[in-house]
Inverse folding.
């Protein structure tokens, strides 16, 4: 233990500091690098094989649309994994909520906003029931949610009854998952100029906040990120936002669901890093006994994490239903595995206490980009896709555990 | 007689730090050799070099055993020549039997099929040697720690041990089991076995050791021959490298009114609700007063403290708690904290720290509202609070973003103390506040405690180290078998009077 102290207290060169910083944040940069590498690989592959270009407006739009529900649920799952639990029921829950929504909206003709509220309420209630078993009765979450996975799949069949699928969905709900924003500022001569303007605003805001935060830290003398890394990171993200905005604006524009995702990501990133409840979630996962003895109501935190998961699964269920266009008993089957994999690829620890919202989102995009690339650029079949995704998951977690043991 | 072991000029370097620097150790045939040193002095590293955990070639220097230079590649190599190490954390499988554990990895078998009859016969023989009468089919989980320790020794004997190394063998044993273990070591010595004992407990060392090697900062400081007579002060001086005139800070008590009072407190075992662990206990702590609770392991001291602190231990807890004369609700941990209580646990790694988090996050944990507005954490304020405690309590680390996992025991304890001080309690319950902390850091912790009492806080201190209670406390309660059996003011409290109170009441109370 004294080893590290001496190592860190000793004076170091600038380059040494950069290297140390890179090493200690290898995982975070590694994920971004991996995502970029995957995209580049498929781009070069499709270019070399004479296929349609991979980095295209329609592919980008599809990437967001296809992965929106995974990302929405990965946020909730991340909180559960941080507390040291797991939720296997979310795939079934997506199917069940879709079925409930379809019955309410299509069969009973209940107005969409009301139906949405009811669906979210059902999601919360289901999360509360599972959370009660896990948090207060101390039944292992693996068991409770495995049971939930079976129960809600069964309930999906029962809700749909004799009809194997319910459609068509109301147009206003459909707009949620496949619609894009209207071009309210047609000034740039692009297909959807408003999108480009929003992208510029977001990019400027991002860079502005990043610089403000860094200068505040500099005043306090707590800057750890070397300057080169900082500029590189900010430039990369800003350019990525602008380029994506440009691509989208030449096509159909900003997908509505992307706005929903961005809002959720922003809210949860803030809650996990900056609020007392976020801190308590990490504390419960880091050392439940110590957290409890420090006055944290650990059971309540776990309970709330499950309620939250239920609500987000309901949101994802509606988005999924709206995207597929019909509610069937098979909707969302196996989705829980993608969601859990996204969290672990994104750096969450299987032992609890560690994980970031942004990490889970990037993890989901890595999986999404792999899916899309193998499907559209390489035209590999589903079995290869499964194989590759499995190996990526194993590699990511092995890397984490190896690093942890080495430290 | 020629020494059985000579370690010459051992130097072991880890990236960035020299853990051992030219250490010499000579152990004579048939003696009990004690190794002392503060935490982090390099004792365990030295034993790992000896037992082959760090293989030959990863260190400089020679190990001469039985007159030959040895280069062990792993533990099997060193065990092969009879060097057996028993670690502080016992390496037994709880759900296997004594016999299975003794021969684990070393089964008596023919062609892979275990000969159970022979195994049990041999196991019984070994158990007799260590003075255990348990049948060899008993599961480890059904035995106390003291007996488990004996099983470890029996396991060592089964491997034809010639040099037995014990790392803090009595750390988790109570007084009686410790004595029995030390007696056993002396008995083995009479039979010609050589032992090395790493220990913090100076009284035990002076009882059994023939010679003592003191290690400080990775170097040998001195080798003392006990036949010539060695005083504890001399050992301590060598360990810390300076004269310790006082092991405790001077106490200038300014004792005020009764701050916290508990009346007729009862608590039952958390699993077995028939078993009463705390029996009708009443006590009080005044402002500015340091009150001790003495007692043997299992007396119910921790259970009492935790049941008072938000019923974090026990079932069917009953009794009355008063703060400043007014009844307070301490039925949950958040309520107990709100009432002005803080409980600093005896097991800081399990119950005190988020080891993966940094100093800053650990300090704010018990009082998150204190650094937040409307549920949003004010990062500047959190940082400032952590910086203040780091400098006030002199937590040694590069900064407040240091993971608590990588701190020494003393500094970890200071982080836990900081956490509770930031929750601004009236009464601090300190459970074994210096356990596993080296001598120099102990003094710092004592000084902090004394300072807090000086600020008018009440301190309730549980400790198994009687000298510590006698050195620090203004008043000592003696607890035995769930009851408070004596209350001794500073002037009357001695090791003898405390032990007398315990022995007089032992076995008196039928549950």
């Amino acid at each position: 233990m004294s080893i590290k102290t001496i190592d860190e207290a000793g004076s170091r060169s600038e380059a040494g500091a950069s290297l140390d910083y890179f090493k200690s944040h290898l995982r975070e940069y590694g994920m971004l690098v991996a995502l970029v590498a995957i995209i580049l690989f498929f781009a070069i592959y499709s270019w070399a094989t004479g296929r349609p270009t991979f980095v295209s407006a329609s592919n980008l739009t599809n990437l967001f649309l296809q992965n929106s529900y995974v990302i929405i649920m990965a946020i909730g799952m991340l909180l559960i994994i941080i507390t040291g639990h797991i939720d296997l029921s979310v795939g079934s829950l997506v199917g069940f909520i879709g079925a409930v929504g379809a019955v309410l909206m299509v069969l009973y003709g209940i107005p969409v906003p009301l139906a949405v509220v009811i669906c979210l309420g059902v999601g919360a209630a289901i999360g509360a029931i599972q959370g009660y078993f896990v948090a207060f009765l101390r039944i292992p979450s693996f068991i409770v949610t495995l049971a939930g996975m079976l129960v809600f799949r069964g309930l999906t069949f029962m809700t749909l009854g004799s009809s194997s699928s319910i459609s068509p969905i109301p147009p206003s709900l459909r707009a949620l998952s496949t619609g894009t924003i209207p071009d309210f500022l047609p000034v740039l001569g692009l297909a959807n100029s408003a999108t480009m303007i929003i992208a510029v605003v977001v990019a400027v805001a991002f860079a502005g906040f990043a610089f403000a935060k860094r200068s505040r830290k500099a005043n306090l003398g707590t800057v750890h990120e070397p300057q080169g890394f900082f500029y590189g990171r900010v430039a990369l993200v800003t350019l990525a936002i602008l380029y994506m905005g440009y691509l989208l604006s030449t096509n159909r524009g900003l997908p509505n669901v992307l706005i929903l995702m961005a809002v959720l990501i922003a809210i949860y990133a803030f809650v996990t890093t900056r609020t007392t409840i976020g801190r308590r979630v990490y504390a419960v996962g880091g050392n439940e006994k110590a957290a409890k003895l420090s006055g944290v109501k650990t059971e309540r935190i776990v309970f709330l994490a499950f309620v939250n998961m239920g609500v987000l699964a309901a949101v994802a269920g509606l988005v999924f239903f709206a995207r597929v266009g019909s509610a069937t008993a098979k909707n969302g089957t196996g989705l829980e595995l993608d969601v859990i994999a996204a969290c672990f690829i994104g750096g969450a620890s299987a032992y609890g206490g560690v994980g970031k919202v942004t990490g889970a989102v990037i993890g989901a995009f890595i999986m999404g980009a792999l899916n899309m690339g193998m499907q559209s650029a390489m035209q590999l079949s589903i079995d290869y896709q499964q194989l590759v995704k499995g190996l990526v998951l194993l590699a990511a977690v092995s890397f984490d555990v190896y690093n942890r043991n080495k430290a | 007689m020629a020494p059985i072991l000579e370690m010459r000029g051992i130097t072991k370097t880890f990236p960035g730090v020299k853990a051992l620097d030219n250490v010499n150790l000579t152990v004579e045939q048939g003696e009990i050799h004690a190794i002392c040193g503060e935490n982090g002095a390099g004792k365990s590293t030295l034993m790992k070099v000896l037992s082959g955990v760090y293989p030959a070639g990863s260190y400089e220097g020679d190990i001469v055993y039985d007159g030959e230079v040895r280069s062990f590649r792993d533990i099997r190599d060193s065990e092969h020549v009879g060097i057996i190490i028993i670690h502080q954390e016992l390496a037994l499988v709880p759900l296997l039997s004594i016999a299975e554990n003794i021969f684990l990895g070393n089964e008596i078998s023919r062609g892979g099929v275990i000969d159970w009859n022979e195994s049990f016969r041999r196991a019984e023989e070994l158990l007799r040697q260590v003075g255990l009468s348990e049948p060899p089919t008993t599961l480890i989980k059904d035995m106390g720690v003291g007996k488990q320790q004996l099983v470890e020794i029996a396991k060592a004997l089964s491997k034809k041990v010639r040099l037995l190394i014990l790392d803090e063998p009595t750390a988790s044993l109570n007084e009686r089991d410790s004595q029995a273990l030390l007696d056993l070591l002396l008995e083995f010595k009479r039979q010609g076995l050589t032992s090395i004992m790493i220990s913090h407990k100076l009284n035990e060392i002076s009882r059994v050791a023939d010679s003592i090697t003191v290690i400080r900062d990775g170097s040998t400081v001195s080798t003392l021959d006990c036949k010539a007579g060695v005083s504890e002060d001399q050992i301590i001086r060598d360990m810390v490298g300076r004269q310790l005139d006082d092991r405790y800070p001077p106490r200038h008590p300014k004792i005020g009114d009764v701050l916290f009072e508990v009346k007729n407190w009862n608590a039952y075992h958390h699993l077995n609700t028939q078993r009463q662990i705390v029996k009708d206990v009443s006590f009080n702590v005044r402002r500015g007063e340091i009150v001790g609770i003495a007692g043997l392991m299992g007396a119910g001291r921790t259970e009492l403290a935790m049941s008072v602190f938000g019923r974090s231990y026990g079932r069917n807890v009953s009794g009355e708690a008063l703060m400043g004369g007014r009844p307070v609700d301490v039925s949950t941990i958040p309520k107990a904290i709100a009432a002005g209580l803080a409980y600093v646990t005896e097991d800081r790694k399990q119950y005190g720290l988020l080891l993966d988090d940094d100093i800053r996050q650990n300090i704010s944990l018990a009082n998150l509202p204190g650094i937040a507005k409307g549920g949003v954490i004010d990062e500047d304020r959190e940082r400032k609070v952590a910086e203040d405690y780091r400098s006030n309590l002199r937590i040694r680390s590069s900064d407040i973003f240091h993971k608590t996992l990588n701190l020494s025991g003393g500094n970890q304890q200071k982080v836990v103390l900081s956490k509770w001080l930031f929750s601004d309690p009236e009464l601090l319950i300190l459970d074994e506040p210096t356990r596993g902390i080296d001598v120099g850091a102990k003094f710092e912790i004592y000084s902090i405690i004394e300072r807090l009492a000086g600020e008018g806080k009440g301190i309730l201190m549980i400790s198994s180290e009687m000298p510590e209670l006698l050195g620090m406390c203004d008043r000592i309660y003696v607890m035995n078998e769930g009851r408070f059996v004596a209350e001794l003011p500073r002037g009357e409290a001695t090791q003898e009077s405390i032990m007398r109170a315990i022995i007089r009441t032992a076995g008196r109370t039928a549950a």
User: Anything to note?
Assistant: The longest helix of chain B spans residues 175-190. The mean pLDDT of chain B is 88. Residues 346 and 431 of chain B are 5 Å apart (CA to CA). Chain B is about 35% helix and 25% strand.
